[in-house]
Design a protein that fits this description.
Length: 936
């Protein structure tokens, strides 16, 4: 119902009134749904009470029946006739006899729970269960028909509550068929009959009395009915009340006819008479505690201006008249708990006021209308409080929803209609309403039995304070206030374990986000002239939005709520935080301000990542909220991505003052990782790996950029770029206390992942280094002692040792193949530098390159032959043999084309001599080697 009402209110409102229509519709829809739910609950309670009373009567009636059936028992007396519920009917002398009213609970009569017919209402039934009853009520029932006993026993379930239509029909049926039914129906028929007889006699010319005299006689009959009913108020209360109500109705109709139909009374006299009649009806109703008498009198009083008006009267007179009527309603509410009368006054006052305003209001009427609107608002706020204070028994402190929530909505709606073009005055009006409700809430919450209505007034105070903000401030400040207020309402709802404040708080935060986005599209993204980075309105607003979302998530997690309640606030807060950073970087990273790096956006984002690490890590520790650690991990991931994106700015990591940002980031990352240790953060290892990777990327890129700036060769650039990663791998391997700081204790748990990833990167880098040309400028090239070939040799030794420990069988062959590749490329690199050939695949088309490879492979093969033969290692000798086989194959397939020149001749001669020498001095070793010599 709240959703439907909000949609209808949003559709009904236009322009500046759309928000007001949305809120008003939501509250009215929610209240209507609540009223329907309470009605169903009340019907269920009444049905349950009837079932309990029936079962009690069945138990009381079953005992005499059992005694009568026992042997030797005296003859039972004739049973007394009972009604369907098992309760003796009233004496036939009339429902208003003393015997009938002796059955009514005196406490219920004092509490106003007995209607004009003497029937007890649902509140009285509730009181009859928990409060002592009168002696007449507790008199035992002597007998009961067996069928009634059976019916009472089987009635153990609670019937479903009737629909609103059925409930209304039940009320009408109860009015006509309870109490003194003949008098009620007779008075209605008499009124219509008298009116019809008079009209017919006049039309037929039977009565020739003057019109004023005829009206006076009718009025005298009404006065006589009132007096006669007053005289019967004690002996026959229902009869007397019916006569009094009918007499007052005759007087009101007569006054209306004399003024409107026949123009026999001036307007002032007619209104005065109506006022006197209403006052008399109110006095009679209060004296006899009969709301049924007050209702028709006040209905006539509120309808009188509508029926008597010609459209040319003064609105001051109209509202003054209504003020007197509402004063009477307020006075009655002070001493009686009559909800129907309160609702009649509330509905007629504001609806007729709304109708007059839509048709006749002009801006010049404000000074004469505003005092009455304030007065009517004050009346019904006070009446709502009195209704809760005067309620009997357990109903004490309950909220009369239509008046409690309808009064501020209708009154403020009328105020908004008069001040639609003056938002500041409307904002002050909303704040004044908020102050009034806050004061009432503070007063009522001190009383234990008034907690519900006190909380309702507190919610209204918060709502109108919230409504005042967008009327007085920009959308940005509206977002701030709503977001903080929403977090406060969530805290209040969780503390009181109430869903409504929580839902209101979440709705306010959603509205705050919408207001913030509106401000962004309304020029809020662009920085104003002279705006400071970080210390500006936009950064403050969005940061507070993030704080309120984080606070909501933290409150739900502390309260033990599920993930669906915790994660949304955390994700929204993270999004707001990064939105604030994106705007500051976009607007201030290039303008020479605090965030300006002089080199572009990535380094500014890295500064924001450092701030995120410090803020989130510190708050995680202070609030003892591990979930914030995910933002630390997100900042580390962002830093790693930025290190890849901003490689062209990496040299700034070693420059002043931009290099201080990198140092600050490292310090912030170490602090964040240290704070994630206790309690241990999920994904902590991932964060540490991201940190190590970012260090390697940033400072590797910085060293590479410095080398390029110094005009060093590509081999130096490549080696310096890998140096940080190599250093980190060695430190974490050999000195983990230093290399894995501050997570040295946790590092063994994910060290394998780090070494695997770094090993893969280094292996790829090693493969890439094979393609380097050996540019060692400004130093001359030296084979095997240049940066790239030293790195290749070191990498090959480390990889061979690692492989020999884990896969001993294929490791020698793999190491031999890799070594052959490295030395072959080293030979080609030497050819490139000393022969002046271009470093590209076409170098293999030259005879010098092919001869160099042939001689080199032959030396390697012969060396392996000799070493394998001397040490009696079959595998090593076999490797040499395979190498020499490759050499022979190469001579046949490749080098034979160069036989006509010196290079080809040298190749064949060198290979032939080596083979002869090996065959002489290196015989074949045994195939099976001792196991203890299988590893060097």
């Amino acid at each position: 119902m709240a959703l439907v009402g909000s949609i209808l209110g949003l559709v009904a409102g236009d322009g500046s009134a759309a928000l007001l229509g949305f809120l008003a519709g939501a509250l009215l829809g929610w209240q209507w749904g609540r009223i329907r739910a309470l009605g169903r609950r009340l019907d269920a309670v009444e049905a349950r009470l009837r079932a309990l009373r029936s079962s009690q009567v069945a138990r009381q009636g079953a005992q005499p029946v059992a005694e009568a059936a026992a042997p030797g028992a005296a003859s039972p007396k004739a049973p007394v006739a009972t009604s369907d519920a098992g309760i003796p009917p009233a004496h036939e002398a009339g429902s208003g006899s003393p015997a009938r009213h002796a059955e009514v609970n005196p406490a219920a009569r004092e509490a106003g729970c007995v209607d004009s017919t003497g029937m007890e209402s649902a509140p009285e039934l509730l009181e009859s269960v928990v409060a002592p009853t009168s002696p007449a009520r507790t008199e035992p029932i002597r007998a009961m028909p067996p069928a009634a006993v059976s019916n009472a026993r089987v009635q153990t379930g609670v019937p479903a509550g009737p629909s609103p239509l059925e409930h209304g029909l039940q009320r009408v049926r109860a009015w006509f068929f309870s109490g003194n039914v003949p008098v009620k129906i007779g008075m209605l028929v008499l009124l219509f009959g008298v009116a019809a007889a008079l009209k017919y006699s006049i039309d037929a010319g039977w009565v020739s009395l003057p019109l004023p005299l005829r009206l006076a006689l009718i009025a005298a009959g009404g006065v006589a009915a009132v007096l006669w009913g007053w005289r019967n108020r004690i002996e026959r209360p229902a009869f007397g009340l019916s006569l009094q109500g009918g007499g007052i109705g005759i007087l009101l109709l007569t006054t209306f006819a004399a003024y409107r139909l026949y123009a026999l009374l001036p307007a002032g006299v007619a209104f005065s008479l109506v006022l006197v009649l209403v006052a008399g009806a109110a006095m009679l109703a209060v004296l006899q505690n009969a709301v049924a008498l007050a209702v028709p009198g006040f209905l006539g009083g509120y309808l009188a201006p509508v029926l008597l008006s010609t459209g040319s009267g003064s609105h001051v007179v109209l509202f003054s008249y209504y003020a007197l009527l509402n004063l009477a309603v307020f006075a009655i509410a002070w001493v009686r708990h009559w909800r129907a009368l309160n609702l009649i006054g509330f509905a007629f006052t504001f609806l007729i006021g709304l109708g007059w305003g839509m048709r006749y209001y002009r801006p010049e009427h404000f000074t004469t209308v505003e005092p009455f609107l304030i007065l009517f608002f004050g009346f019904y706020v006070a009446i709502a409080a009195l209704h809760a204070l005067r309620a009997p028994g357990r109903l004490r402190g309950l909220v009369d929803g239509p008046i409690v929530f309808g009064t501020p909505l209708l009154a403020f709606g009328l105020q908004a209609g008069m001040l639609h073009d003056q938002p500041m005055r409307l904002a002050w009006s909303a704040m004044a309403v908020a102050v009034i409700y806050a004061g009432l809430a503070g007063w009522l919450l001190r009383r234990r039995d008034m907690a519900l209505i006190g909380q309702s007034f507190g919610i209204l105070a918060a709502g109108f304070a919230t409504l005042a903000i967008p009327l007085a401030f920009s959308s940005r400040w509206t977002a701030i206030t709503w977001a903080l207020e929403g977090a406060a309402l969530v805290w209040l709802g969780l503390r009181q374990r109430r869903a409504l404040p929580q839902a209101s708080g979440l709705a306010l935060q959603i509205l705050a986000g919408a207001a913030c986005f509106i401000s962004l599209f309304d020029g809020g993204w662009d920085a104003a002239a002279g705006e400071w980075p970080v210390l500006n309105g936009h950064a403050l607003a969005v940061s507070l939005l993030a704080a309120s979302a984080f606070a909501t998530s933290w409150l739900y997690e502390r309260a033990g709520a599920g993930r669906l309640a915790v994660w949304p606030g955390f994700l929204v807060g993270t999004a707001w935080w990064h939105l604030a950073g994106a705007r500051e970087i976009d607007q201030h990273a290039h303008g020479g301000g605090l965030l300006s790096t002089g080199a572009g956006t990535p380094l500014a984002w890295l500064a924001f990542a450092a701030l995120t690490l410090l803020a989130m890590g510190g708050l995680r520790h202070l609030l003892r909220w591990p979930r914030l650690g995910w933002n630390v991990l997100l900042a580390l991931a962002l830093s790693a991505a930025l290190a890849l994106i901003g490689q062209h700015e990496a040299a700034l990591a070693l420059h002043w003052p931009q290099g201080t940002l990198w140092l600050a980031w490292v310090a912030a990352a170490l602090a964040g990782l240290a704070l994630l240790r206790r309690p241990a953060q999920r994904g902590l290892g991932v964060g540490h790996l991201l940190f190590l990777a970012t260090l390697a990327l940033v400072y590797g890129g910085a060293l590479a950029q410095v080398a390029r700036a110094a005009a060093l060769g590509e081999d130096w650039v490549f080696a310096l770029g890998l140096a940080p990663l190599i250093a980190l791998a060695l430190l974490t391997w050999r000195l983990p206390a230093l290399g894995a700081f501050p997570l040295a204790r946790e590092f063994p748990g994910y060290a394998r992942i780090w070494f695997a990833l770094s090993g893969i990167v280094l292996a790829l880098a090693w493969a890439q280094s094979l393609l380097l040309s050996g540019d060692t400028a400004p130093l001359p090239f030296l084979p095997l002692v240049n940066p790239s070939e030293l790195l290749q040799a070191i990498g090959l030794i480390v990889a061979a040792r690692w492989a020999w420990q884990r896969v001993p069988e294929p490791a020698p062959a793999l190491a031999a193949g890799a070594a052959l590749l490295v030395l072959s490329l080293a030979g080609l690199r030497a050819v490139h530098h000393f022969a002046g050939l271009a470093w590209n695949p076409m170098i293999l088309n030259h005879g010098v390159a092919q001869t160099t490879l042939t001689v080199l492979w032959s030396i390697l093969g012969v060396g392996a032959w000799l070493l394998g033969s001397r040490r009696q290692r079959w595998s090593l000798w076999l490797a040499g043999a395979i190498t020499m086989g490759l050499v022979l194959l190469k001579l046949v397939l490749v080098d034979r084309q160069y036989v006509g020149n010196i290079a080809g001749i040298v190749s064949f001669m060198a290979v032939g001599l080596l083979l002869v020498l090996v065959g002489r001095i290196a015989p074949t070793p045994p195939r099976h080697e001792p196991r203890q010599e299988s590893r060097p």
